[in-house]
Amino acid sequence: MKPWLHRVPLTVAFTALALVYVVLAALLAAWLTSQGFSPWGAAAIGAAAVVLPLALHVQRAFAPMHSLFRALAGTVASYRDGDYAFSLAWEAKGELGELVDSHNRLGAALREQRLALVQRELLLDTMVQNTPVAMLLVDPSRRIVHGNLAARRMLGDGRRLEGRAFDALLDEAAAPLREAFERGGDGMFSVGDADDEEIYHLSRRQFRLNGRPHELVLLRQLTTELRRQEVQTWKKVIRVISHELNNSLAPIASLAHSGAELLRRGQHEKLPMALATIEERARHLEGFIRDYARFAKLPSPRLQPVAWAQFLAQLRSQVEFRCELAPDDGIVRVDAAQFEQGLLNLVKNAHESGSPASGVAVHVRRVVAGWRIDVLDRGPGMNEAVLAQALLPFYSTKRHGTGLGLALAREIAEAHGGRIALLNRADGGLCVSITLPD
């Protein structure tokens, strides 16, 4: 049984107890005075008789609360250390009971949160360890904080990488990987020869962890994915070439047979029409093959300073368009022949979009650290699905299109260190935008 004192409010209990002892002290002092003690001596003895028992009662009454407070302090220290595996028992009600209940509810909530956090950490660790992407976390001192299983297989022969110097690990890695890191940023590189080549993509991200800069390194093997895409691309190329060849060779064979019949019958007046059609289809096939060869054999650009005014004048001699140039004395470093071919394709596409000739324009203007070239038309524009695929090789919405015009322009722009983008104009039409660096 716990002391009765904690079963009632402390103020009431101690007030009643104090009154009892005061009455007893007064009675004791009166009796001592009647026995011949001086009033002061009797009062002192009475006070001592009150204080000592009262102190013992107070100590006994507060002992459970002292134990409770010590237990509360201990649990708070345990919570601070991450230990939530216990709770407190207190039978009494009142303020202390509410305090204990609140403390136990806090511990239960912390236990649930800790369990959920542990489960999430286990799930995250399982995902990180089993992903095929090699992941390395490097601290400010260039030491590896964490490396998953893929990183161990790729860079450590299956051994743990934590604690190793990252730069020393790079020194032991393949030369293409070291070169990729020396170039900085993200990029692709290949390891091995042509018969046993593996292609990887390197990503590097900087962030702060606990107030300190860290680097996350991701190495993803792309060989299988690229080969699968390569197979799909070749299948599409074969379908496009087969379709185009059949479209030209079938009428050529038919007209050749018809021409032979006309000769046999002596109907020579119809031969020129048949031969003209054969010539037209043959020239179309020749142009088709030439476009493919040009796309496949595009050499590295030979950059030279070119005056924009002269370049655009040369382009306008081949195809009609409105021109805006700012500033009009600008100089750009490009391979003039390649870049002319790329812009020529874009301007011809603008004319073939159904735009009136007066609606086709080329705007060239200076931007920060480079140039922006916009080829504009007033055609119907493109829907979202076409915009997403229009720059891919062999994709075309034209009945007899090869799907190489925009792809070739993109190849030329990127070979010059630039980029190309397509967007619909707010007031109708399409804008093909190329940005080039200085």
UniProtKB/TrEMBL annotation:
Keywords noted in UniProt: ATP-binding, Kinase, Membrane, Nucleotide-binding, Phosphoprotein, Transferase, Transmembrane, Transmembrane helix, Two-component regulatory system
BP-aspect Gene Ontology terms: osmosensory signaling via phosphorelay pathway
Q: Where are its TM segments located?
A: 12-31, 37-56
Q: What class of enzyme is it?
A: transferase
Q: Name one GO cellular component term.
A: membrane
| Occurrences of domain Histidine kinase (ranges) | 240-438
Domain of life of the source: Bacteria
Matching entries from SMART domains are given as: HATPase_c
Catalysed reaction(s) here are:
ATP + protein L-histidine = ADP + protein N-phospho-L-histidine
Task: Tell me if Cell inner membrane is a UniProt keyword of this record.
Answer: no
Which compartments does it reside in?
Membrane
Task: Mention one GO molecular function.
Answer: phosphorelay sensor kinase activity
Give the EC number. 2.7.13.3
The way it spans or sits in the membrane comes to: Multi-pass membrane protein
Give the protein's recorded name: histidine kinase
